[in-house]
User: What shape does this take?
Amino acid sequence: MTQVQTLSKNQQVVFDIILKAKEPLKAYSILYNVQKKGINAAQQIYRALDKLIEVGKIHKIESRNAFVACKNSNCEMSKATAFSICESCEQVEEINDKNLSRYLAGYKDKTGMKYQKYNLEFFGLCKKCKK
Ligand SMILES: [Zn+2]
Ligand SMILES: [Zn+2]
Assistant: This one.
């Protein structure tokens, strides 16, 4: 990561938990994990999650209502994300494809409307599950 972002103590704790997780984490399992570290208020966790999303450190997987750490240092502060989700094993990967983001950045619909942000989720079977 090129940019150094200062996170508050709560944000750092929450971020570390999401970073270490092998799968997208739901808010309640984050809460369960931070309670061991002395943060008890759900409010604080939600505030930390909002901030981490805002600065692009984590992303929310809407269809799973869960959070993943950003694996793409280029998309800090970005509101444009795409994920591939395996419908069998629930593996989630952040898609980092310059062609796709370039296409979507220039995309206009029939009325000429352009989009500032998107949060795409593609579903299919990962390599492992295809076998
Ligand atoms: Zn990202
Ligand atoms: Zn799979």
The first helix runs from residue 9 to 20. The two ends are 35 Å apart (CA to CA). The CA atoms of residues 22 and 91 lie 9 Å apart. The helical segments are 9-20, 27-35, 42-54, 98-105, 127-130.
